[in-house]
């Protein structure tokens, strides 16, 4: 398994039951796998352009886990000091997108399905969408 080098990230492995050839069942329980109460979930589908970029922001406080349920994409993480790039293609593994972590998703396969669970409701004021501002804030927090 890949080692996470950036701050405020990590990988969780969910419980999997493999009923081949009748499918796989993957389970996430709050507190056992997801360390917060889930207040929102959303999913990203139908990214038809391989060159599409999503994310390109950080959050001030929000905690999230992202799962790639189908297909694949690349995720780039940047904590303001260290950067890391990973391929997401195994639905068992969730990546923590904690506060102050610039994240960009790219190179989506056409069948890519991303599921994100979050510990709070949508709040645009929690987003940092300007990279220079992110770097300034990230340096202050060191
Ligand atoms: C994140 C990455 C992984 C809402 O109104 N409510 C919501 O809950 C969300 C997630 C988005 N929106 C609105 C805000 C924008 O006007 O939907 C529009 C598209 O959102 P955005 O450009 O932020 O989408 P992504 O895919 O770049 O980012 C999303 C999440 O917004 C973000 O929190 O961490 O996925």
Written overview of the protein:
By secondary structure, the chain is mainly beta. It has a single domain (9-141), classed as Jelly Rolls. Helix content is 7%, strand content 42%. The chain has 1 helix and 12 strands; from the N terminus they run ββββββββββββα. It has one helix spanning 131-140; strands spanning 11-13, 15-18, 24-27, 40-44, 54-59, 64-70, 73-78, 83-88, 93-97, 102-106, 113-118, 127-128. The strands form 3 sheets. Strands 1-9-6-11-4 form a 5-stranded antiparallel beta sheet, with no helix packed on it. It has a 5-stranded antiparallel beta sheet with strand order 8-7-10-5-12. β7 (73-78) and β8 (83-88) form a beta hairpin. The longest helix is centred in the last third of the chain and has 10 residues, at 131-140. It is globular and about 50 Å long. The relative contact order is 0.28. DTDP-4-keto-6-deoxyglucose binds at residues 40, 42, 44, 54-55, 64, 66, 97, 116, 122.
